Amino acid sequence: MANSETPDIIYTIVDEAPELASASLLPIIRSFAKAADIDVETRNISVAARVLSAFPEFLTEAQRVSDDLAELGQLVKQPAANVIKLPNISASQPQLNAAIKELQEQGYALPDYPADPQTDTEKDIKRRYDAIKGSAVNPVLREGNSDRRSAKAVKAYAMQNPHSMGKWSADSKTHVASMTANDFFSNEKSATITAAQAGPAKITFTAEDGTETVLKDGLSYEEGTVVDATFMSAAALRDFIRAEVASMEPGVLFSVHLKATMMKVSDPIIFGHFVAVYLEDFLAKHGDAVAATGWTPNAGIGDLEAKIAGNAELEADLKAALEGKPPLYMVNSDKGITNLHVPSDVIIDASMPAVIRAGGIGWGPDGKAADTKCCIPDSSYAPVYDEAINFFKQNGALDPTSCGAVSNVGLMAQKAEEYGSHPTTFEIPAAGTVRIVLGNGDVLHEHAVNAGDIWRSATAKKAPIEDWIQLGIARTKATGAAAFWLDASRAHDAELIKYVKPALEKAGIDIPIMAPREATRFTLETMTKGDDCVTITGNVLRDYLTDLFPILELGTSAKMLSIVKLMNGGGLFETGAGGSAPKHVQQLMEENHLRWDSLGEFCALGESLKFLAESRGNTRAEIMGEAVEVATQKLLETNKSPERKVGQLDNRDSHYWFARYWAEALAAQSKDADLAAHFAPIAKALAEGEEAITAEIKAAEGSPVDLGGYYHGDASKTAEVMRPSATLNAIIG
Questions:
Q1: Exposed/middle/buried for 337, CB within 10 Å: 0-12, 13-18, 19+?
Q2: Nearest CA-CA partner of 410 in 515, 546, 549
């Protein structure tokens, strides 16, 4: 390790399928890196680790864990930071509850989650647990803006080996429905903080009787920060839901697409309104009995079914209520899991691209494909999906063999925009007025609100905005076509445009500024012609588009190369999306087949090694990184990526082939004779052991496995499952 204070590379410990894959891949990475005197350390940012680190006083000395997320939050501000970040769970309330229960059953004396805290102690426990939910990790680590694109080898492979695409019909009834008034978009106010306004601020709520409550104190705004405030009317939302349910056409599925994980305060509440309205008649009849079980609509239909299990009357009436409504888009038709079962089951950035890729098709309760009404209540970003659907209805499905590549430059540094809004989002208790009051006495924003309305504020600081613009300009020059996705009619975007236009003029470059709907069509037209295009967006659109376009052009977003250029000089290398990770874990536990594709990890590893070479002058790291790229390309060319079914290649097979090709590339290179000499016998042993290694991996498949836990598995049991080849383990160490 070149710098005792900053590790060469930090590899994150996370959750679900990516973490299972790490049990197989990380020993390979460490073994190879050691030969080049590169130290690979880990830091645990899993849900379980974050829960345990939040409650040390409830645990024994041996059970306590360090707060690795807080440590990483400081490390990413150092110039030499080099972090490979795998996808982690952005826990919804049901996921958090499940993690707590699992840890308690394992002997950790954690407190229960207090849903309705009464004492100061309970309020403190709830506060600590709530800090773990949603996008708790990303805002801490993302001290830079995002540059996300497909690696050349990945794009070339996708064009030569196209994934399946559903056929679009011009008369498809699939469509997007969103609110036209009283949503976050229409109620938004935004302002840029002046020098006179900079400093402390607070958010207050004044009830109609004049009683004032401080919703959030201790805020501080720097000069140049864009500060937004907005709200969604609960009454308008419920009217919208009722109207959309009533307007359903025969043969069309009803669905809602939200982000109840990242947007951990607002979207679970919105989800709850959909559930409550959908079950309005049932709840009107059985409201008291249901309330007695402790169920809330925000938890979904799945939790309701669990709580009323055994009550024949309630079970029968719930079944009748669901059958009397339009059919729901299904998460799993075989298991009866609907779109409204669990708030974290349908995440918009994965679910909407899946519908679009399939030709507008979802799966109904009968297990058959059908057109879908996609409800996206807030109209801020709904036009992106609406325009994509319209485009494909007019032009037919995208051709992966000829389409251009779409990359993204995303504004996200220092908690920019909506992902920074969780601590400043509130469900309003009564009619009144919410205000942002500055230290100098100015009322920056105010809204008249009613009980149940969802009010939120978000910020974007000056330095990240300026850095984002320059990154966008640089990527445009390198790529060609590009657009800033900003709507001049939206309050927040209008403030950003005040930064963008002068910067473009100073740079002498003309990059169009387009509202999301127009930018969507521009991008689809560009890529359809076979040209590459850069989308330059804010934080939420960054998240949405880096799933939408990769799923259409590559078949998955897990294979994207995501480079976060940290503002103080370091590098954060993200390995792709984890939206499908729960299904992968379920299959592994049932069949011992893991179809998670580690291609994102391979790409991030190569970039991390190259960054290490550049930042510390480590020539061996550069050789290692170049060999990773050779191995990755060969892995794709020889079709050694995981497949879906038992008996086919899985994640562990792909790691063997990656290790073999990596060793062969290092043995063949001529820049470092010692490295070549070290890896020559390893490459030979891996090649000669092919038959034994692949047989040992295959022999383990087909039966259920015990990992010792879902959120907090047993390391030895996981290693036994994920490293089944004694031959490979003996070679790697």
A1: middle
A2: 546
